[in-house]
Amino acid sequence: MRNSVGLILAILVAAVLIVLYSSLFSVYQTQQALVLRLGEPIRVIEDPGLHAKIPLVDSVILIDNRILDLENPSQEVIASDQKRLVVDAFARYRIVNPLRFYQSVGTIEGANSRLATVLNSSLRRVLGESTFIDVVRDQRENLMARIRDQVNREAAGFGINIIDVRIRRADLPEANSQAVFQRMQTERQREAAEIRAQGGEAAQTIRSRADRDSTIIVAEANATADKLRGEGEALRNDIFAQAYNQDRGFFDFYRSMQAYEASLKGSDTRMLLAPDSEFFRFFGNPAARPEGALASPAAPAAAAPAQPAAPATPAN
């Protein structure tokens, strides 16, 4: 009898524990809860902690209250200037109304699917009204704000708040990019060829000017050299003439020595001259004089008596 009573008590305790366990549930800080009674929503729990429900009657759906990501696949958009763009965008959103979220989309996967459609439509609508330059450079921030506002208006019906929409990449399609690249390359090559031509022209001008200046400088230098050479030769001839007039015998001797040196320089010198030639007269007699040579002007000058100085003529 006692065993039967103990067994019954144990069963009752176990049933009570099961009922208590089924009537309690926890909500974490990253979650919010929607309580359903026989499939009908009765309340929303947003505070974290331990909460109670009616076992076997109430059910709890936990919904994430963190910021969620919506990754949108790349798509082509035609801008207002008829240029095709490959746009890669993403969105960040948060569930702010669990009841409406549950009634409209049900799950996060369903929300992502619906939001992707809304985001694509808004992208095409806003970017289709803008130019290529506005999208990639000038008005990018404003365009993203407009897209976010439009998506947010439609997402409010899902119990969702769109926090941000960003265009990760907006570029031309691959074929267009290659065409633009080729056009840019051709333009740069044309500019490079033009700059090279201008450089070649400037180099030719500088080279021609330098050649002209060098020709003028060389001509002036040659003229100066010829002038100096002529003056030097004139001075030399004058010195020779003065030396000849002072001592003709020594001058003949000196000039003959120069002639001997110039004619006997080579390693194989051959001269066909008679032994008694006038050219070799200084070989036999260094004091030789040509026939009819005048005496040195110094001797008669020394032998001549001194002449008295002429009287000075008074100046007028």
UniProtKB/TrEMBL annotation:
<dbReference type="InterPro" id="IPR036013">
    <property type="entry name" value="Band_7/SPFH_dom_sf"/>
</dbReference>
<protein>
    <recommendedName>
        <fullName>Protein HflC</fullName>
    </recommendedName>
</protein>
<comment type="similarity">
    <text>Belongs to the band 7/mec-2 family. HflC subfamily.</text>
</comment>
<keyword id="KW-1133">Transmembrane helix</keyword>
<dbReference type="InterPro" id="IPR010200">
    <property type="entry name" value="HflC"/>
</dbReference>
<feature type="transmembrane region" description="Helical">
    <location>
        <begin position="7"/>
        <end position="28"/>
    </location>
</feature>
<feature type="domain" description="Band 7">
    <location>
        <begin position="22"/>
        <end position="184"/>
    </location>
</feature>
<keyword id="KW-0812">Transmembrane</keyword>
<feature type="compositionally biased region" description="Low complexity">
    <location>
        <begin position="293"/>
        <end position="316"/>
    </location>
</feature>
<dbReference type="Pfam" id="PF01145">
    <property type="entry name" value="Band_7"/>
</dbReference>
<feature type="region of interest" description="Disordered">
    <location>
        <begin position="291"/>
        <end position="316"/>
    </location>
</feature>
<dbReference type="GO" id="GO:0016020">
    <property type="term" value="C:membrane"/>
</dbReference>
<keyword id="KW-0472">Membrane</keyword>
<dbReference type="InterPro" id="IPR001107">
    <property type="entry name" value="Band_7"/>
</dbReference>
<comment type="function">
    <text>HflC and HflK could regulate a protease.</text>
</comment>
